[in-house]
Amino acid sequence: MHPNPVYRKAEHAQNLAFARARGFGVLALNAAQGPLISHIPFQLSGDGTALEGHLVRSNPILRMLGDNGPQEAVIAVSGADSYVSPDWYGIEDQVPTWNYVAVHLRGTLRVLPQDALGGVLERLSAAMEGQLLPKPVWTMDKMGDGVAQKMMRMIVPIALDIVEVTGTWKLSQNKPEAVRLGAAEGVAEHGIGQELATLSQWMRDPPC
What we know:
Layout: H1 12-22, E1 24-29, E2 36-44, E3 50-56, H2 60-68, E4 71-84, E5 97-111, H3 117-129, H4 147-152, E6 155-170, H5 177-190, E7 193-194, H6 196-204
Helix pairs in contact: 5-6
């Protein structure tokens, strides 16, 4: 996360909305053998104070939680990003950089009771399927008898009680408007990264 305050002016609600819309991030926590990391889908609670997800039972993070109880953890949620060439600014003496949006959710990670898993999975799939309308919504009822139960024995529900939300929206806000717009055009036409159209639009009209 870039420390420059100009990139960290997003409102709490805006950071939560970004994380909620993404619904996928990198879960990380410290262990004796070094950091443990897992890429997971998740769903935020309505008030943004907690999130729920699941891990495969053999995941080392689950073993650590089982041995030591709840642990401090962070989920890093990233979105649109791109390399920015100095040539796109249209002014001299610039350097290459990378523009991006990222939100970190910090808190206490804990294991949920196994009987909570069904609800966790149903809420997560419902949230994702709702974004695919008018496609008919997929539900676990479409699975054969016993199939879902067999698969659910392999995964464990988890929750993160969130105590801190921080966001970086690095969109060339430290540059004059004409310079920023030139970089936005360069990203749109030649960017190297992901979701280039979204990033370019945010650079043209920074949401924070």
